[in-house]
Specification:
The complex is a heterodimer of chains A (108) and B (236). Chain A is mainly α and 108 residues long. Chain A has 5 helices and no strands. Chain A has helices at 3-26, 34-41, 43-57, 70-83, 88-107. Chain A is extended, with a radius of gyration of 19 Å. In chain A, 52% of the residues are buried. The mean pLDDT of chain A is 88. Chain B has 236 residues and is mostly helical. Helix content of chain B is 78%, strand content 0%. Chain B has 12 helices and no strands. Chain B starts with a helix and ends with a helix. In chain B, 48% of the residues are buried. Residues 1-12 of chain B have low confidence and may be disordered. The chains are: A mainly alpha (108), B mainly alpha (236). At the A-B interface, helix 1, helix 2, helix 3, helix 4 and helix 5 of A face helix 2, helix 3, helix 4, helix 5 and helix 6 of B.
Chain lengths: 108, 236
C-alpha cells in the first residue's frame, strides 16, 4: 500500500466517523440552533446535485451541452427515472445503459 | 401461559431474525454498487488491497465512489477528504434523528453504533423503532450484514472483475453519477428541496466552468443549502 493512499483512506475514515458519531452521541444531550438544523438538512441534496449536474453538463470543465456528450443522454434517462420515482438501482441501470448506447452510436 | 411468555421473551431478546430478513433485500443494490466500486477503484489505479481496505475502514459507498472518481481526475488528498466530509454530512442528520432511541445507552455502545451508521441501516432501524420495536440488537444485526456484504462485494469487484472490464464501453464510468441521480430522486421531496437542487445545480455548473479544481462542489453545497433554508423558512 502506498503512503499517499493510506493517508487518503485514514483521512476519509476520520471525517466519516466524525459525521457518524457527532450527533448520534451528542444529540442524546443537546439540540442544534434551529436555523442551522434547517440549513444542514439541504446539504446532502446540495452535495449530490453539485457533483452530478456539473459532471454531466461540464465533465471536462467546459460546458458540453451537445448531442455527442454521452453523459448528457445518461443524465436525461436517469433523471426521467428519478422524476418518476423509480427505484435508485433501476434508475442507475437506465442511466448507464443510455450512456453506453450513446457512446456506441457515436463511435459508429 | 408460561411457555407463551418464554417464547415472547426469547423472540424479543435478539431481533436478529427480523434484522437479517429486512437486510437481505436491501443488500442486492449494495452488492451491485460494491462490485462496480471495486472495478472503478481498480481503474483509478488503486490495488486490490487498497480498494478493499477503503471499504473496510471507510464503509461509506457514495463518498468512496466520489473519491475514486476524483482520484482519477487528479484531485489531492485534501480535496477528496473535504468532499468526503461534505458527502457524509448527511450522517449528521441521520445520527441526530436516531439518537433519541439510543438515550441512556453507554458510550461504548454509542460509539460502535456510530461506526456502523449507513443509509440502509438507518432507514430500516428508524422504521422499526418507530413501530415500538426498539432494540439496539436489530440495528447492529442489519448493520453488520451490510458491512460484510459491502466489503465482500468490493473485494469481488476489485479482484475478480478488476481491470479487465472496459468500464467506458459499458457506460460504467457513468454509474456513480447515475446512482446519485437515483438517490436524489428519493431525497428531493419538498419545494425547498427542489429549490436547493436548482440552486446547487446552477452555482455548481457556473463554478465548475469558472473556477479551477474541485471547489465547485463546496460552492454548490453552499448555494443549495442556503436556498433550501431560505425557501423552507419563507414557506412557514
Amino acid at each position: 500500500m502506498r503512503y499517499e493512499t493510506v493517508k487518503l483512506i485514514l483521512g476519509m475514515a476520520a471525517v466519516t466517523y466524525l459525521t457518524r458519531s457527532l450527533f448520534l452521541v451528542g444529540f442524546s444531550r443537546w439540540r442544534l440552533p434551529p436555523a442551522l438544523e434547517t440549513g444542514l438538512k439541504y446539504v446532502p441534496i446540495g452535495v449530490l446535485t453539485s457533483i452530478v449536474v456539473p459532471g454531466i453538463l461540464a465533465p471536462y470543465g467546459r460546458l458540453a451541452i451537445e448531442p455527442d456528450n454521452p453523459y448528457l443522454w445518461g443524465g436525461i434517462a436517469a433523471g426521467a427515472g428519478a422524476l418518476r420515482g423509480w427505484n435508485p438501482v433501476v434508475t442507475m441501470i437506465l442511466g448507464v445503459t443510455a450512456a453506453a448506447l450513446a457512446r456506441l452510436i457515436m463511435v459508429k | 401461559m408460561e411457555i407463551e411468555e418464554r417464547v415472547r421473551v426469547k423472540r424479543d431478546a435478539f431481533d436478529l431474525c427480523p434484522a437479517v430478513r429486512d437486510a437481505v433485500p436491501l443488500s442486492v443494490p449494495v452488492v451491485f454498487f460494491g462490485v462496480v466500486f471495486g472495478v472503478l477503484a481498480r481503474r483509478a489505479g488503486l490495488s486490490i488491497a487498497e480498494t478493499t481496505g477503503m471499504s473496510l475502514v471507510v464503509f461509506a459507498g457514495v463518498s468512496q465512489f466520489a473519491a475514486v472518481t476524483m482520484l482519477g481526475a487528479g484531485a489531492s488528498v485534501t480535496q477528496i477528504v473535504l468532499a468526503t466530509f461534505m458527502i457524509n454530512s448527511r450522517h449528521l442528520f441521520m445520527g441526530a434523528s436516531i439518537a433519541p432511541y439510543f438515550r441512556g445507552s453507554g458510550l461504548a455502545l454509542l460509539l460502535s453504533a456510530a461506526g456502523l451508521l449507513t443509509d440502509e441501516s438507518y432507514a430500516l432501524s428508524i422504521n422499526r423503532f418507530a413501530r415500538n420495536h426498539v432494540k439496539a440488537g436489530y440495528y447492529f444485526s442489519c448493520s453488520v450484514v451490510f458491512y460484510l456484504v459491502w466489503v465482500g462485494s468490493t473485494l469481488a469487484g476489485a479482484a475478480w472483475v478488476g481491470k479487465s472490464l472496459d468500464v467506458t464501453r459499458w457506460g460504467l464510468d457513468f454509474a456513480f453519477l447515475a446512482a446519485f441521480i437515483g438517490i436524489l430522486g428519493s431525497q428531493v421531496r419538498s419545494r425547498a428541496g427542489v429549490a436547493a437542487l436548482v440552486a446547487a445545480a446552477s452555482v455548481g455548473v457556473a463554478a465548475r466552468v469558472l473556477l479551477a479544481g474541485q471547489w465547485y462542489i463546496a460552492a454548490g453545497v453552499l448555494g443549495g443549502s442556503i436556498t433550501g433554508w431560505w425557501v423552507e423558512n419563507r414557506a412557514l
